[in-house]
Structures are given as C-alpha cells and as structure tokens.
Amino acid sequence: MVSNPVHGLPLLPGASFKDSTKTSFHRCQTLGYRNGYAVIQRPTFGIGGDRLQVNQLSQAELEELANKAPILTYGQPRQAPRTDFVPAHVAFDKKVLKFDAYFREDVPISTEEHYRIRQVNIYYYLEDDSMSIIEPIVENSGMPQGKLIKRQRLAKNDVGDHYHWKDLNRGINITIYGRTFRIVDCDRFTQVFLESQGIELNPPEKMVLDPYTELRKQPVRKYVTPSDFDQLKQFLTYDKQVLRFYAIWDDTDSMFGECRTYIIHYYLMDDTVEIREVHVRNDGRDPFPLLMNRQHMPKVLAENAKNFPQCVLEISDQEVLEWYTAKDFIVGKPLTILGRTFFIYDCDPFTRQYYKEKFGISDLPRIDVSKQEPPPVKQELPPYNGYGLVEDSAQNCFALIPKAPKKDVIKMLINDNKVLRYLAALESPIPEDKDRRFIFSYFLATDMISIFEPPVRNSGIIGGKYLGRTKVVKPLSTADNPVYYGPDDFFIGAVIDVFGHRFTILDIDEYVVKYMESNAAQYSPEALSSIQNHFRKQGAPGPELENKQAKEDASVQELEALIETIQKQLKDHSCKDNIRETFQVYDKEATGYVDKETFFKVCESLHVPVDDSLTKELIRMCSHDEGKISYYNFVRAFSN
C-alpha cells in the first residue's frame, strides 16, 4: 500500500496540497429507507471513501459535562435548533384512510326492482388530501364496476373548499358530484388515526344490502310431486255443469264511476271462473262479451309471488296458497276478484239446487240491488244582498241570464189605473218637519207605493217626488222573507215605516172610502172604525162631500205649487210663446183638452222636457179619465 505523500504537512493559509494518487471522488449517500420510509442518515465516510474523524469523548468527560451548570459558566443557554422539516409526502407516505360506504341508485325502468344499493370503499390519502372511490366487483351484476372516481381532490361545496379528513366520520352523508354516499364504518388504522387527532367517531352502522342481490341468492325453487287428485273423474262427473251468479260492481264512489251488472260463471269441471258483461241496447259501450276470460282464480298469493310476472307467465300452485272454489260464491256476500269487488245478488235454479245438495244451503233469496232515486234537494236561495227587490235578486239564482220576475197579469188588468191616495205627516223631532205633508199613492195593480210632497211656497223645502214607485217592506219582516205593505195597512192613524222614516196617515180621499166599503172583509175592524170616527169628529155634511171638497182643495194647492216649482227650475223652457197657439190649432172646438198622442206630439215638436220628474207629475195631474189632457194648466208652467 502506497502511503499518502502529503500526509502530515501543515495546511497553511494560501497553500493547499492535493493527493495526486487519489482516483475516487464519490460522495456517500445521506438518504436511506427504513421500514419503507425515507430517512436522513449521517455519513461515516467522506469524499472518495475517506473515513471521517469523529470526536469521541470519554465517559468521564461526558459525566463532567452533564454535571456542569452551563448557565453559570456560559450564561443563558442557547435555544435548541429546530427539528428538521419533514414534507407531507414523506411523513404521510403510504398512509391511507379507508371508509366503507354505500349509495342508493334508482331503477325507473325495471319491474323487478325500484332501486339498488351499491357498496363502495372510500380511500383518503393523507399525503396530498386526495380521495378515490372504488366499488368492489360483484359477479354477474351486469354493471361496470371498479374505480368510480379516480384519485383527486374532491370539492365539497360551490365555494371551492375540498374534503379534508376532518370532514369524514362514521354515520354521515357526503355528496360527491351530485351523488350522496352514506359512510357506515372504517378500518382499524383509520379509527386509531382519527381518535389520535381528537375526533370523536360515531358508532358504526350496519351495511345495507341490495334487495335484488339478496333475492337472487335465494335457493332455486323446488318442485313437489303433484297430488293424487283425479282430474279426469272431476271432468267426467261435472262436465257441462256451470254455476251462474248475477253480480254488480258498484264503483260510484270514484270519479266517473258507475254501477254495472255482470254474470259470473263457475265451471265445476275444472274450477275455472269467467266473468261476462251484461250489455243493454244503446248503452254506449263496445260489445266486448268478456270482462275476464275463463281461468283459475287465485284467492291468496304466496309472499314470493308479489313480483311474479303474471302478464307473461301463467301462475301456478307454487305462487298461490289458496284458489277460489264453489263455496266462496255465496248470494248476498261481496267477492273481490282481481282488485274489483263484486256483490252477488242472485243465481239460477241449477245453482240453488247444487248448493242445497252439496253444502246444505237452501236459503238463497234474491237481493234487491236497485237503487232508489235520492230525494230531491231543496233549493234554498242565498241571503238577500240588499240591492233591489228580493224578487229581482232571486232571479240570478234561477237562470244564467236573469229574467224579470213574473207578474200577476190578471191582477194588473183588473186594478189598472186604480190608485189609493192618503195624506200623511212625517214624524220627526225637527221642528221644520212638523208642518210637512205628503201624499201616499198606493197602486193596486203592482202593490207599489209612491210618495209626493206638495211644494209649499217660502217653506225652504223643495217639494216634489219624495219616493218613486217601489214596494215597501214592513219593519218586522226579514230580508229573506219580506212582507210588503198592503191596502189593509193604510187607515187613518196608521203609522207607516218607509225605509227608516215614520209617517202617520191623516186623511184619505173619496175613492179610498169606496174601496174600503166594497172590500170591508179585507180590512180590520180597527181600520174601519178609524174612518167612521174621523168623519164623525169633523161633523161635515157627509164623508163623500167632505172628501170631495178636500180633494179638490188639495189638488188645486198641489197643482199651483207644482207649476210654480216648474217655472223656477225650468227657466230655459219658460219662454215658449207659441205653446198655447200650437195646442189651440189641434183643439178646434176650444174645449181645452187634447188626446195624449197629440199632446206628446206637440211637446216633442217644441222640445218640452217631458222626461223630467216634475213634468211627468204635472202631466199626471192634468190627465182625465177620458184619455185626454188639459193643456191650460200645462201651458201656464211654460209661458210668461
């Protein structure tokens, strides 16, 4: 071995010595692997394999250093250097949290399953906070399984936050890409890690199993040996023997339901059932003879037969616990067949004889199932709304387009132009209303009342029409059943309540007296005695003469007051100088009267306002029974 020629030479500043014989300049490794983890190791050899000099202290020197107080010797101790930084991919390398979970998936197009349960394993990688979801492969599942979500960081909300291991626990739901996973359990390493980090784990849950997968795990259906029942004997004994029942299906409780009639046939030869429809002429239904074709009818199904495809496969004894037999068809009892409840109300004579011999049932009477018409519903009018008369408002309930209520035409023809007039005073606490007088007009043809107040000069009250023609309800009557005032309610001293205003009858005209004498049975003794006492107190020559004179005086005063009111209110039409001359042209005999047609023709040509309420009242007062109108007083109201 050649020795180092520069060994032992002093290393002075500015001078360096190289070993020219050295050919190896490699460095020793400072990183190594221990138990699968990368760790830092201190090199024992330098460049080129030269052994490094290590300062090794003796045991005595170590004890001396341990017993010395460095604070007294060297002052305050220096802070210990920080530990070396260990990256996450080194500290958590190959450390993975595992959770057992499942999610529910709807199956909308399958008749055998409505949903399926898919079990998955959720892996959380601590080194980079990534996650992956793996579904274990199930044989013959028909679905692509394996890696559902590849390893990546998964977002837990719309803000951009990602799932962390602090967000995972047993017994919670997490939503990933719109699909909700239920975490039920975790492995031992995951449980120890989470508990070491101060997370309290929820109790584990039981993994939910897929119902369709469990159904497929059931053993294959076993076949049993058929019974020794001789079907040939039954066929030869009961061939062409059929029990006939008459039944109804009442479906009136459902919307658009009805009660229909059917005939049920029970074939004794093979215990099959057939249901026939009963059609009548012009019933509006398609002429299908059978509601249910002839077949064996199950009564009680087995538990595993609920999902049996009856529409494509024939049902057998393995799916049915009990079949319908002849003893289940009894007259007077309901019977449910394929979801419809039939009520058997009768059978034919052969069926009665069969039940009597076979089952000992001799009493099978026919049951009357004809439904009686319900009693007619009494139509009640709604409460009166307060607008118009009760009869007019009631027409809205009788027809979509209301019509005018029917009138008593015979009564209107008999009592046409028959008017009862009364003189009344207003009961009022106001002193100005004590001297006011009103004329009540009762029209016998329509039972309506109108009130007119004769104008009084310088009274401060404008007279005229106080109430138009209308029916007046008595105060004690109800709004739904009103009672109107009649002729028997008007007599001297009677108090009439007209829409909250009270009037007292003071006097009557001569026509009222004659009407009361001719219809004495209609009036009460109090009303008749009030008339007699009234004329007896006056002591006049007679009621007829007095009424006539009072009537004439009242009419004259009323006419004069009305003419004066018209002259004040209709000033624009008061300068018709040619009104009198026009009427005199038609009145060639100078009688002072013209017929109604001529009268209105002249008024229309001169633009006289005949539609005004005061003008109508003036025309009425100027009219006579012969159908003519006196134009003298009418001209006075429209001339200078």
TrEMBL record:
SUPFAM superfamilies: EF-hand. Residues 574-609 form the EF-hand domain. It is found in: Cytoplasm, Cytoskeleton, Flagellum axoneme; Cytoplasm, Cytoskeleton, Microtubule organizing center, Centrosome; Cytoplasm, Cytoskeleton, Spindle pole. InterPro entries: DM10_dom, EF-hand-dom_pair, EF_hand_dom, EFHC1/EFHC2/EFHB. The keyword Manganese does not apply. The keyword Coiled coil does not apply. One of its GO terms (cellular component) is centrosome. Residues 93-198, 239-359, 416-520 form the DM10 domain. Keywords: Cell projection, Cilium, Cytoplasm, Cytoskeleton, Flagellum, Repeat. One of its GO terms (molecular function) is alpha-tubulin binding. GO terms for biological process: flagellated sperm motility; mitotic cytokinesis; mitotic spindle organization. It comes from the Eukaryota. PANTHER family: EF-HAND DOMAIN C-TERMINAL CONTAINING PROTEIN (PTHR12086), EF-HAND DOMAIN-CONTAINING PROTEIN 1 (PTHR12086:SF9). Microtubule inner protein component of sperm flagellar doublet microtubules. Interacts with the C-terminus of CACNA1E. Interacts with alpha-tubulin. This is EF-hand domain-containing protein 1.
